[in-house]
Amino acid sequence: MRNLKNYLSITLLILGSGFFFTACDDDAPEPENTTELITDVTLVFTNTADNSTVTARAVDPDGIGAQPIQVLDDIELAADATYILTYEILDRQDPTDPEDIGEEIAEEDDEHQLFYGFTEGAFANPTGNGNIDNAGDPVDYNDQDGNGCNLGLETTWTAGSAQTGTFRVRLQHQPDIKTCSTGANDGDTDFDLTFNLIIS
């Protein structure tokens, strides 16, 4: 009888410990938001006059490895032409089943924004040098998140006169902090790419 009582006591103690550990597991913090895994970024400039396109691509050669994403192409635009800029943003870690990160960014529009920097005067519209250095500087965003704040998966650009310079695009991941005035240094950077810009 004493052995049975001891056995019951040990069983209850084990069950109680299991409940305690389960309860602790339930209180474990949820994983933090992380930046997107992006291996391919393609900028697509569509000329509003004739629907011709100019593309420029950047690729991460080793996915989650140490090498950063690398710009492969220049951006070559026609002087005085107006373009709509859109993106193809992919995770090609599994080349047989690429993941559309652009779609994910659109779904999580309240957590992301694309910021732009460019050579002063390269564009007739927007003017200036972009909004990476100052979030309030002009960029012609065509899309907004559910709160009415800029997203940047679609923008409009009117090239200036013939010249060379640079065009920079930076995607920020801003979960729980994005507002209509947060800038390019707020949150975490998903990618930051600088392309040669040729206007002719």
UniProtKB/TrEMBL annotation:
Organism taxonomic ancestry: Bacteria, Pseudomonadati, Bacteroidota, Cytophagia, Cytophagales
Record's keyword annotation contains Signal: yes
Keywords recorded for this protein, A-Z: Signal
Name of this protein: GTP cyclohydrolase
PROSITE patterns assigned to the protein according to its UniProt record, in alphabetical order: PROKAR_LIPOPROTEIN
Signal peptide from the UniProt entry: 1-23
Highest rank taxon of the organism: Bacteria
